[in-house]
């Protein structure tokens, strides 16, 4: 069978012109499959059928291989089988109608209410930058907006009297999101005590500005949240999106309806928002297991 493998790799290299890394990946996957076949005393490619491949995929699963690795292996075997069919080494492709294993949905990382409180308490309210950072963190958690939306905010997008911000999503769809009283207070303090001293040009419209008085960047905010995560000594990988995930999960845990959370997050498809219900179900199960005497 190794002769077929050599021909297959030659075909991918010179006819498909694949990269060296891709070729090595195909060769490794198919070579391991051939070794498995030899161990099962399957020495003719015509003996390989659908059941053989399914059994091999299950074998990889038992070895603890990730779903993504198993899917890649199937893709390599599929390409190899199609090559053998095109070259008339086999009569039919055994991978037809074989579906790749579905990856489990990775649940987003969230913070507990206590961890949110700890993180938001880190900025120093005795200096200008601390007051600015406090306002940004409070707004991010209060509204669940993306970091790109946060740094894109202009002063005109803010209505403190009515208690909301106007935000534009990636699809340029405008949405109105309420601001909580704590975030409102933090932003009010930033605007009245700090922003005017940070801004160098009076025509600057950005709500949140950096040391140079110009619009804060996404990269700049990443550094800020990393600094406060380390300061809070929270043993989790926290990104700006972690506060968005926490916002959505905490709303649902406290009785908010899915449709409202979808609108605030700016999700076009409610199935994207539904991932947060899995987190709330996990929380309920955790509480049950700890509290029920027969759990």
From TrEMBL:
InterPro entries in alphabetical order: CB, DNA_brk_join_enz, Integrase-like_cat_sf, Integrase_catalytic, Integrase_recombinase_N, Integrase_SAM-like_N, Recomb_XerD, Tyrosine_recombinase_XerC/XerD
Keyword Disulfide bond: no
GO biological process, one term: cell division
Subcellular location(s) per record: Cytoplasm
Quaternary data: Forms a cyclic heterotetrameric complex composed of two molecules of XerC and two molecules of XerD.
Family from the record: Belongs to the 'phage' integrase family. XerD subfamily.
NCBIfam families tied to this protein: PRK00283.1, recomb_XerA_Arch, recomb_XerD
Protein name: Tyrosine recombinase XerD
Gene name, Swiss-Prot/TrEMBL: xerD
């Amino acid at each position: 069978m190794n002769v077929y493998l050599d021909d297959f790799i030659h075909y991918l290299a010179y006819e498909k012109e694949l990269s060296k890394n891709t070729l090595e990946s195909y060769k490794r996957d198919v070579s391991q499959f051939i070794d498995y076949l030899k161990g099962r005393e399957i020495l003719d490619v015509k003996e390989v059928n659908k059941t053989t491949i399914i059994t091999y995929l299950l074998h990889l699963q038992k070895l603890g291989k990730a779903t993504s690795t198993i899917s890649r292996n199937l893709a390599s075997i599929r390409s190899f089988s199609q090559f053998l069919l095109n070259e008339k080494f086999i009569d039919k492709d055994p991978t037809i109608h074989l579906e790749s294993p579905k990856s489990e949905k990775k649940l987003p990382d969230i913070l507990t209410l206590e961890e949110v409180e700890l993180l938001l308490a880190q900025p120093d309210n005795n200096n200008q930058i601390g007051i600015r950072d406090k306002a940004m963190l409070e707004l991010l958690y209060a509204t669940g907006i993306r970091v790109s939306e946060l740094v894109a905010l202009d002063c005109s997008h803010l209505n403190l009297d009515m208690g909301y911000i106007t935000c534009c999503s990636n699809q340029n769809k405008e949405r109105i999101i309420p601001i909580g009283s704590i975030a409102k207070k933090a932003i009010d303090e930033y605007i009245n005590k700090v922003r005017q001293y940070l801004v160098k040009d009076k025509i600057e419209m950005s709500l949140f500005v950096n040391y140079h008085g110009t619009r804060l960047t996404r990269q700049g905010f990443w550094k800020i949240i990393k600094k406060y995560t380390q300061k809070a000594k929270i043993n989790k990988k926290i990104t700006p999106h972690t506060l968005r995930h926490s916002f959505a999960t905490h709303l649902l845990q406290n009785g908010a309806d899915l449709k409202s959370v979808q609108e605030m997050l700016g999700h076009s498809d409610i199935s994207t928002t539904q991932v947060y219900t899995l987190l709330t179900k996990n929380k309920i199960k955790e509480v049950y297991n700890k509290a029920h005497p027969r759990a």
